[in-house]
Structures are given as C-alpha cells and as structure tokens.
Design goal:
This protein is mainly beta. Helix content is 0%, strand content 48%. The protein contains no helices and 10 strands. A 6-stranded mixed β-sheet has the order 2-10-9-4-5-6, with no helix packed on it. The chain is globular. It starts with a strand and ends with a strand.
Amino acid sequence: VQLVESGGGLVEPGGSLRLSCLASGFSFSNMTMTWLRQSPGRERQLVALISPSGAVTRYPDSVKDRFTVSRDNTKNTMYLQIDNLRSEDTAVYFCKASALGAWGQGTQVTVSS
C-alpha cells in the first residue's frame, strides 16, 4: 500500500490549493478515502471523507464550506480543493484509506501573508 500526497505549499490567506493523493497497492475504487490534517500541538483531524464511488462526501462543520473532496478512480487519485484558506488551515495534510493502516508522508500547507 502506498499513498503519495502532493500539492501543498505556501499560500496567502484567501487563496486556494488543490491537494492530490495518488494511491497504489490496493483496490482504490472499492475504498472509502479520507483526508486528515495535523498541526503542531494538535491532534490529527479528519477534514474530508469520500465514498468509493464519490457519490457521498462528508466534512466537519469547520471546513465544509471551503473544502471539496473528489476522486478519479481511473487514476487512483483523490483530491482536496481548499478555498478561502485561513491561517488555521496550516497543517500537514494526509490521505488515508479508511480501512487500512497505511499513511502517506503528507503534504505541508502553510497559510501566511
């Protein structure tokens, strides 16, 4: 199982980013996938969930109007569109298959002017 996140970077408040998660080594199209984030001194937080087909998505209230998760099962890739970035979004973002224990290395998102 391998998960590779990309797309992070330094962005000004109000900006946007699109994160990607390329999966391999398991049946991606049959797996519920999640995005989580962790910032220093804080617990890891689930920020998005998407069903195997992509028809169902879930977000915590703190991000639901700004985060959009999607997937392309033909490319074994999941995405996270983050709009109107805030300083509190600064974190390392990880993707994870919900039923598997593997994690990627994460991608750093830093929101700062």
